[in-house]
Structure formats: structure tokens, C-alpha cells
Automatic annotation (TrEMBL):
Catalytic residue positions: E106
Protein biosynthesis found in the keyword field: no
Organism: Flagellimonas hadalis
GO cellular component, one term: cytosol
Binding site for substrate: S29, G30, S31, T32, D84, G85, A86, D87, K97, G98, G99, G100, K124
Gene (name only): rpiA
Protein name in UniProt: Ribose-5-phosphate isomerase A
CDD domains listed in its UniProt record: RPI_A
Summary of the function given for this chain in its UniProt record: Catalyzes the reversible conversion of ribose-5-phosphate to ribulose 5-phosphate.
């Protein structure tokens, strides 16, 4: 097993301790969240009584396979805890997410969750966000014009591809990956992007996270 995978498992095991009987749990997306879902599934099979709200079709399928009762956000009375991964984080608990294209539902769940816990391996910690291109979800109808505007803003948008075709999200939208290196005012960047009609959401998670659990070697480090 790679040291990165080991760190993801260590972080997920630490997060599992925060999940209590009766909770509604937000299920993140990506490889670290998949490890979390597998751990939750095992705990459910051993008697833990929780319900999950999935942030992507892939996570929903995995959760069902693992035996976690999955409910839709609409019928969830509340989300007690949301456990998700990240592509980058800084010590101000700001994140870039969406490497796997699930940023929109992830952000919706993060907004409605009482507590947001991010689990990561140590490669995800950065001084300043932006080495990882920022994913944004856009309506395909407006994609070309949005790309022109983002190009003028110096953000070098790239259309995300999958198997040689344009990638589509669970909502059938496109993902553009932006170069935000050197951008220090992330709140303003978020506002500028979200104010462009046709941009549905961005992968900047600036004010949602309560706790980050990072696997570091054989230990965990926390940021809160
Ligand atoms: O869209 C995907 C999500 O934001 C993931 O949580 C993020 O890409 C991190 O994924 P991983 O745990 O595979 O590094």
C-alpha cells in the first residue's frame, strides 16, 4: 500500500470516531471519501445505525453496495456530520475541491451540514491554494462565452475531458479547470466567478470547514 493511501485510511479511521448512532452523515466523493464510505459500511454491518446523504452518483452506489441506508437531501431532517476529501487545503481551513467533478453537490451538503470534517493525506496541505487547478461547474449552453470571459480575467480555463469527450457532472454540466495561482483574495475571486451567469458553482470552499484531519505518516494532525 502506498504511503498516501495509508494516510487516507488513517484520517478516515479518525473521522469514523466522530460518527454516532442515529446520525445523518454526508458522504463525500473521491478516493479518500470512498475509504470513509467503506469504513462506515463495515460499521453499519456491525450495528451502527446511520443514514447517508451522498454527494455523487459514484458515492451513492458505493454506499448502497456497502449497506449504508442512503436518503436524499430533501428528506434528510438534518445532516449531523459531513465527511469529505479535498484536493488542497491551507491552515485557514480553505479548500479546493472538485477534482472528481462532484463539487456542486459537495458544496450543497457542506452548506446544510451541522459539522464539516475534511479527511486528507499530507500531500494536500499547501501554503496558498492554487497549485491544483480550480474546478468550476458551468452550464454547457454558456461554456464558450464563459471561457472567453475567464480568459480575459487571466484564468486560462481548460475544458475538462473524460475519455476524449467533454466531462459531464451528475447534473449534466461541464467542468472548467482554472489557473488561480497567485490569486490571494479568494473571497473576491469566488464572488467574481459566481456572479457570471452560467457558472453554477466553484470548487473554492472558503468558510464551510470545521475540522481537517490529515494523515501524516502513521499519525493524524488536525486543523481547526
Ligand atoms: O470532486 C471530488 C471531490 O471534491 C474530492 O473530494 C476531491 O477531488 C478529493 O479527492 P481524493 O480524495 O480522491 O483526493
Amino acid at each position: 500500500m502506498s504511503s498516501t493511501t495509508n494516510e487516507k485510511i488513517i484520517a478516515a479511521k479518525a473521522a469514523l470516531k466522530l460518527v454516532e448512532h442515529g446520525m445523518v452523515v454526508g458522504l463525500g466523493s473521491g478516493s479518500t471519501s470512498a475509504i470513509m464510505i467503506e469504513l462506515l459500511g463495515k460499521a453499519c454491518r456491525e450495528g451502527l445505525n446511520i443514514k447517508g446523504v451522498a454527494s455523487s452518483g459514484i458515492s451513492e452506489k458505493l454506499a448502497i453496495k456497502e449497506g449504508i441506508p442512503v436518503i436524499s437531501l430533501d428528506v434528510a431532517p438534518k445532516i449531523d456530520i459531513n465527511i469529505d476529501g479535498a484536493d488542497e487545503f491551507d491552515t485557514k481551513l480553505q479548500l479546493i475541491k472538485g477534482g472528481g467533478g462532484a463539487l456542486l453537490r459537495e458544496k450543497i451538503i457542506a452548506h446544510f451540514a451541522s459539522k464539516n470534517v475534511i479527511i486528507v493525506d499530507s500531500s494536500k496541505k499547501v501554503e496558498q491554494l492554487g497549485s491544483f487547478p480550480l474546478p468550476i461547474e458551468v452550464i454547457p449552453f454558456a461554456q464558450r462565452k464563459i471561457m472567453d470571459e475567464l480568459g480575459q480575467m487571466g484564468l486560462s480555463p481548460q475544458v475538462r475531458l473524460h475519455n476524449g469527450k467533454e466531462y459531464r457532472t451528475d447534473q449534466h454540466n461541464s467542468i472548467l479547470d482554472l489557473d488561480i495561482q497567485g490569486q490571494t483574495d479568494l473571497e473576491t475571486l469566488q464572488s467574481s466567478l459566481i456572479n457570471i451567469p452560467g457558472i453554477v458553482e466553484t470548487g473554492l470552499f472558503l468558510n464551510t470547514t470545521n475540522l481537517i484531519i490529515m494523515g501524516s505518516g502513521n499519525e493524524t494532525k488536525t486543523f481547526q
